[in-house]
Design brief:
This protein has 3 domains: 13-29 and 135-202, Nucleotidyltransferase, domain 5, CATH 3.30.420; 39-112, Actin, Chain A, domain 4, CATH 3.90.640; 209-291, Substrate Binding Domain Of DNAk, Chain A, domain 1 (Sandwich). The protein is an alpha+beta fold. Strand 7 (209-212) and strand 8 form a beta hairpin. The protein has helices at 13-19, 39-58, 66-82, 108-133, 153-162, 177-189, and strands at 25-27, 88-97, 100-107, 143-144, 168-169, 200-202, 209-212, 218-222, 230-237, 245-252, 262-270, 275-282, 288-291. The strands form 5 sheets. It has a 4-stranded antiparallel sheet with strand order 8-7-10-11, with no helix packed on it. A 3-stranded antiparallel sheet has the order 9-12-13, with no helix packed on it. It has a two-stranded parallel ribbon with strand order 1-6. The chain crosses the membrane at residues 263-282. InterPro entries: ATPase_NBD, HSP70_peptide-bd_sf, Hsp_70_fam. Pfam families: HSP70.
Length: 292
């Protein structure tokens, strides 16, 4: 069966999930994220733990065996989900390496111990977001959980403590919030849906956009949390006179070093003057345009 989709607009996940709880006008105040922290980091801590445990018990290092690591990672992902509602679980893998089995238990407390540093980084990110909005915790009405990692009990507990025992919103499946919000936005844009809610959506850039400068420095052109569509210009000077061309690499992220951010695209521009302007624009669909 052939299905044709009419793509009317592209929105990011944060905006889509926020639409679920939007009123007449939805304007996101700030977004903060850690592009170097994700679900895989929790899994990596667990995988490393079991690799070391297997090594201690059997005097065999499986750190370089791709197949064994893949099996352990799959088991860790299942265990992580189980520990969201259970206090302990069993990791059992037959003939993991050279006919040796892996059989071990993992408690929720051990899982939290392995990942406590990462949980604290999550809370630091929440704190940075509040700082950007220039609001204190008492001004927050609702705390909405989105994404599978929000099911981790320790994450929920730390969030509740951070917001001074405020109840967390769990009225919608965290795995479905993005799809639900996207559906609402599609209804708003479609003429076929007459009962769609009245909602004005003000989208934004979740990460800063800029170019790499000399000594690997990130020069921000469009700061994060800028309402889109947006178009900004920045003037740069070539390092030497009479060069005929130079390359501009466009990054997204908040790190000081350009190469620590996500490289989007690179361009080679012809130079006719000493000073050149770099123009970066992003439309309502978050489509990036770069010119000089």
């Amino acid at each position: 069966m052939l299905v044709c989709l009419n793509v009317m607009r592209i929105i990011n996940e944060l905006t889509a999930s926020a639409i679920v709880y939007g009123l007449d006008e939805l304007g996101l105040k700030a977004t903060v994220g850690n592009t170097h922290l994700g679900v895989e980091d929790f899994d990596n801590r667990m995988v490393n733990y079991f690799v070391e445990e297997f090594k201690k018990k059997n005097k065999v290092d499986i750190g370089g065996n791709t197949k064994a690591l893949r099996r352990i990672r799959s088991a860790c992902e299942r265990a992580k989900r189980t520990l969201s509602f259970a206090f302990d679980t069993i990791i059992e893998l037959d003939a993991l390496y050279q006919g040796i089995d892996l059989y071990s238990s993992l408690s929720r407390s051990k899982f939290e111990e392995l990942n406590m540093e990462l949980f604290r980084e999550c809370m630091e990110t929440v704190d940075k977001c509040l700082i950007d909005t220039k609001k204190n915790r008492s001004c927050i009405h609702d705390v909405v959980l989105i994404g599978s990692s929000s099911r981790i009990p320790k994450v929920q507990k730390l969030l509740q403590e951070f917001f001074r025992d405020k109840d967390l919103c769990k009225s919608i499946n965290p795995d479905e919030a993005v799809a639900y919000g996207t559906t609402v936005q599609a209804a708003l844009l479609s003429e076929d849906f007459k009962k769609a809610p009245e909602l004005v959506l003000l989208d934004f850039t979740p990460l800063s956009l800029g170019v790499g400068r000399m000594r690997d420095k990130m020069s921000v052109v469009i700061p994060r949390n800028t309402t889109i569509p947006a178009k900004m210009t920045k003037r740069y000077m070539t390092a030497e006179d009479y060069v005929t061309s130079f390359q501009i690499d466009v990054y997204e992220g908040e790190r000081t070093r350009a190469t620590d951010n996500n490289l989007l695209v690179g361009f080679i521009f012809l130079v006719f003057l000493v000073f050149r302007m770099v123009i970066i624009s992003i439309d309502a669909d978050e489509i990036l345009n770069v010119s000089s």
